[in-house]
Amino acid sequence: MNKSFIALAVASVVAFPASAVEVYRDGDTSFSVGGRLAVRAEHTKSVGNEDSTNKLINSSSRINFGFTHGLVNDWVAGAKAEWGYNPVANGDQEFGNRLGNIYFAHDDAGLITVGKQWSVYYDVTGWTDVFWVYGGTASGTYDGRDEGGAAGGDGGVSGTGRADEAITYRNQFGPVKVGVQYQFENGSSTGDREYGLQGSVIYDIEQVGLSLGGTYGQTKYKGEEDDKVWSLAALYDNNNIYAAAQYGQYENHISFSNTYLAEKAKGYELIGAYTIQDMYQVYGGYNSVTDDNSDAELTYGLIGAAWVPANIVIALELKLGTKAKDNNGVDTGADQYALLARYNF
């Protein structure tokens, strides 16, 4: 099977980047285990009546299992299951579902994936979601209708992040990658979804390490205006330099709080990173999403440095100039400093 297409399959059903160890292979059948354990010491500055805090917290630890089996005529079938867990929790451990899907891949016919998975929207917006600790809050990926508002969620309800109840098709034609997505109906506390549609197109110029992408999504909810998102992005990844920019506009999608959904909003994300000797990294970036019809805003800058030998990541990341305003203009944003320790297995 085409190696680039295998990479495409992994990226679409696990995450990017993904690490896994093959623990069993018998002919055309394999089983792999991957994931990471990650914690961070985090200082949050005081704001308003809130005191500063110093905490040791989970930083998106997870474990995943992958299965593949070779079929006839060069088809490959696979399944991925991934759960998040909290390694610093006290008491009973709680696991949360991150991914669960089945896929069928062929180097000519393409990739079909069914279940909870990374969206085709994220095929484009994921280029700027590569900070070690923060980021990913202005592209419409996670900051949509999910419970938690602008502070959290996995983008599953509207299908912009780890899409719930989704079926996708991806393929590559020379330098052009395409993806389409359909979400089935489901109800939640943030909306009664009838269906969702998405599409993405990416053009790769491999000679210079440049990629250009665009994506559009629309989700139909009962008794509400449609949730609409679109985003454009550019990526340069060459000669130890990684630089990406994203801009998007969002209708009835961005939730700046648990009670306020913006009719129209726009956002952008930037990142630039330089890696030395495949081990040391310095980087910086910016996230900003604003409401067109109120004072609601989530904006901050990021700078950091990381040491990444083999499967280890040690990173210091600073979140600065933070503004987190609700629709009345009340700002509760606080700068944060984090020291991350992570082991990929």
From TrEMBL:
Residues 1-20 form the signal peptide. It is a multi-pass membrane protein. One of its GO terms (cellular component) is cell outer membrane. It is found in: Cell outer membrane. GO terms for molecular function: porin activity. The keyword Membrane applies. Keywords: Membrane, Signal. It comes from the Bacteria. Residues 7-299 form the Porin domain. InterPro entries: Gram-neg_bact_OMP, Gram_neg_porin_domain, Porin_dom_sf. Pfam families: Porin_4. This is Porin.
